[in-house]
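Worked example 3 (structure in, sequence out).
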């Protein structure tokens, strides 16, 4: 999925330069622009996805903005939502909530867009490839929002975009050719090929080793608690796996026998939660020393591995959610100072 284009100020225009006969898209800086009455964002997709139901979109908007109402939810057409955080005053001092819209998927043909629209991909190194391979588009827009103060409107639009991206999470951020040396071979060559094949994404050469000085990431694995035993100042150093805190919940396991295991095992939810927090506090210290990311193992039990935050059947959350959220937020915000 790619963000393709946004509508722009009506005073922007095409200009020709004496040095270059090609059309160049420039902003007329001598004229004060106006924020468009309606602002559109087009997301491009290689494959047609299923647009979420209105209730699902509303729940995501509620989580970001607070109260929202479904104005319309028409299958194979538009879904529209009123966002009460952003009130617009119109005639007779009446205030109404600004709205956000999502279209259904439509066919996309790169040959139908003009140079202005292509210019919205100016900073993508493979922009022509994106346009050639994406066959579908999804339109986002605001409505009844032109009366908002511009910072509020930007908050509404960026929040709507981020909410939508969360609803379509299956995008690739990093390529990982190898994991923990399993079948690992010709690592520098494989990384070089991957970078050439897709220069728009990061490459993690081998999550957990063997380690070579190539790619974008040095990825360490360490159990049970976090540890930084290697560091690379030229690449992002991450902790690709840690944790493995085990707790058996009888009746919610894949098999009920002694083959269930974790790197460390406890008997109660409180014990598991306290161990998770202990690891989180240690991770906070290691972030200051150079860790850029960390991945806890793991979100759910997997067959005989009983070290998940949830049970194998997803029916029981093993840890204290509020305490886990609190330490996670400390970790995520630790570099915002």
């Amino acid at each position: 999925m790619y963000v393709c284009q946004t509508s722009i100020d009506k005073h922007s225009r095409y200009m020709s330069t004496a040095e270059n006969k090609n059309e160049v898209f420039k902003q007329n800086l001598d004229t004060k622009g106006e924020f468009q009455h309606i602002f559109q964002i087009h997301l491009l997709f290689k494959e047609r996805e299923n647009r979420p139901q209105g209730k699902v979109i509303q729940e995501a908007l509620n989580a970001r903005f607070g109260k929202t109402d479904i104005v319309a939810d028409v299958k194979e057409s538009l879904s529209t939502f009123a966002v009460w955080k952003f009130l617009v005053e119109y005639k007779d001092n009446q205030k109404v909530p600004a709205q956000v819209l999502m279209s259904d998927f439509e066919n996309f043909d790169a040959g139908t867009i003009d140079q202005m629209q292509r210019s919205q991909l100016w900073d993508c190194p493979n922009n022509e490839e994106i346009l050639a391979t994406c066959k579908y588009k999804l339109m986002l827009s605001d409505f009844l929002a032109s009366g908002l103060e511009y910072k509020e409107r930007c908050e509404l639009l960026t929040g709507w975009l981020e909410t939508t991206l969360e609803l379509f999470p299956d995008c690739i951020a990093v390529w990982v050719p190898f994991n923990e040396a399993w079948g690992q071979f010709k690592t520098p060559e494989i990384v070089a090929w991957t970078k050439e094949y897709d220069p728009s994404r990061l490459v993690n050469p081998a999550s957990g080793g063997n380690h070579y000085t190539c790619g974008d990431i040095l990825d360490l694995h360490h159990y049970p608690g976090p540890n930084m035993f290697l560091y690379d100042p030229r690449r992002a150093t991450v902790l690709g796996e840690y944790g493995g805190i085990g707790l058996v919940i009888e009746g919610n396991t894949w098999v009920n026998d002694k083959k269930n295991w974790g790197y460390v095992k406890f008997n109660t939810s409180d014990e598991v939660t306290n161990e998770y927090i202990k690891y989180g506090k240690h991770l906070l210290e290691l972030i200051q020393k150079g860790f850029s990311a960390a991945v806890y193992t793991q979100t759910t039990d997997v067959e005989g591995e009983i070290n998940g935050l949830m049970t194998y059947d997803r029916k029981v959350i093993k840890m204290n959610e509020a305490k886990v959220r609190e330490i996670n937020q400390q970790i995520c915000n630790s570099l915002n100072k």
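Notes: The first helix runs from residue 54 to 65. The longest strand covers residues 78-89.
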